[in-house]
Amino acid sequence: EVQLVESGGGLVQPGGSLRLSCAASGFTFSYHHMDWVRQAPGKGLEWVGRIRIQRDSYTTEYAASVKGRFTVSRDDSKNSLYLQMNSLKTEDTAVYYCARDSHSHSFDYWGQGTLVTVSS
Amino acid sequence: DIQLTQSPSFLSASVGDRVTITCRASQDISSFLAWYQQKPGKAPELLISAVSTLQNGAPSRFSGSGSGTEFTLTISSLQPEDFATFYCQHLIDYPITFGQGTRLEIK
Predict the structure, then answer these.
(1) B18 to chain A nearest CA, in Å?
(2) What's the Rg (C-alpha) of chain A?
(3) Residue pLDDT, tens place only, B75-96
(4) What is the structure's pLDDT at B20?
C-alpha cells in the first residue's frame, strides 16, 4: 500500500525556518518525481515545488511565491522527501501536502498533510 | 503562467442529479489536465488524469472530457458521498496550477 506521511509542521515566527519531511512507503520512491502542494486555511490548492528523479539530475521547480526561500530535496536511500522553508511569512501559513507524480501527468497519491502556522 | 478558471465556483444539487463542472485554461494545455476531489479535512484524491482516464477505484459515474482550453468533469448521478470540492490541475508547464475549486453542496 502506497503511503506518504508528512511531519515537521508547527508554529514558527515570521522570518523563521522549518523543515518538513515526507516518509514514503509501498512503492519504489526513486522512480517518481515528487511534489509539495499547500492549502491555506479555507483556500484552494497551491503547488509549491517539485523534485525530479536521479535520471533527471534531481532538478527542481518552484512556484514564484516560494522561489529563493524554499528548497525541495530528497534522499532516495531513506525514501524521504523534504521541504526546507526559510524566511517564512505569515502568508506561508497552510497545510502542506507531499504528493507523488503518477507518470501520467497527475498526482496519484497524497499525504495527510502537516500544518505550518507562521505567526508572532 | 497558465490560469485555470472553474465554473461554477459553487454548486448546489440533489442526490441523483447530473452535474457538470467546467475548467477553462488560459492557453492550450493539450490533454495535460487532471481532476481531484477533496472532502473537508482530508487530502485531495485523484479522480481523473489526462482529461478522461478514470483513476483506479474512482466510481464510473465520474467522467472527464475536453481538449485544448476547455474541459469538463461530469457526475452522472450524484451520490451522498460525492459532495465535496473539486479541483482541476494542469501539468503541461511550470508553474503547475490548480483551478480555484468548485464546491458541490447538497440542495
Answers:
(1) 24
(2) 14
(3) 999 999 999 999 999 999 999 9
(4) 98
Q: Which residues contact A17 (CB under 8 A, 6 or more apart)?
A: A84, A85, A86, A87, A88
Query: How far is it, in rounded angstroms, from Cα A109 to Cα A33?
Result: 12
Q: Cβ contact (<8 Å) for A47 and B53?
A: no
β-bridge partners, A21: A7, A82
pLDDT at A104: 86
pLDDT tops 90 at residue B97: yes
Round to whole Å and give the CA distance between A1 and A16.
Answer: 36
Which member of B42, B96, B100 has the closest CB to residue A44?
Answer: B100
Q: Are strands A107-110 and A45-51 parallel, antiparallel or unpaired?
A: unpaired
Where helices occur in B1-107 by DSSP H, the ranges are none
Average pLDDT value for residue range A5-12 = 98
The three grid cell numbers given for residue A91, joined into one nine-digit string: 502568508
CA angle B37, A61, A17 (to 5 degrees): 90
Contact indicator for B101, B9 with CB cutoff of 8 Å: yes
The three cell numbers of residue B21 are 463542472
| Of A97, A91, A79, residue with least CA distance to A20 | A97
Residue B60: what pLDDT? 97
Q: Flag if A107 and B87 touch (Cβ within 8 Å).
A: no
pLDDT at residue A40, rounded to an integer? 98
| Predicted local confidence at residue B107, as pLDDT | 87
Residue type, B16: G
